[in-house]
Design a protein that fits this description.
By secondary structure, the protein is of the alpha+beta class. Helices cover 35% and strands 28% of the residues.
Length: 60
């Protein structure tokens, strides 16, 4: 089973940051989007992603 997850991070013109992610083997376009508007929210999301990656690596 392929566990690839594609992530695109975009800084929008209005200052928000969009995190869009999907599984290429299943989805053709981003199936999840999360918008944050502060540095704290952005840092929190990146830390959560790192934690999830570590857990997936531990389980592999």
């Amino acid at each position: 089973m392929d566990r690839t997850i594609s992530l695109v991070v975009t800084v929008m013109d209005d200052g928000r940051v969009e995190f869009a992610w999907w599984r290429p083997e299943v989805d053709r376009y981003p199936s999840y989007r999360w918008y944050v508007s502060s540095v704290d929210e952005c840092v929190w999301l990146m830390k959560a992603a790192r934690t999830a990656i570590r857990e997936l690596e531990r389980r592999a």
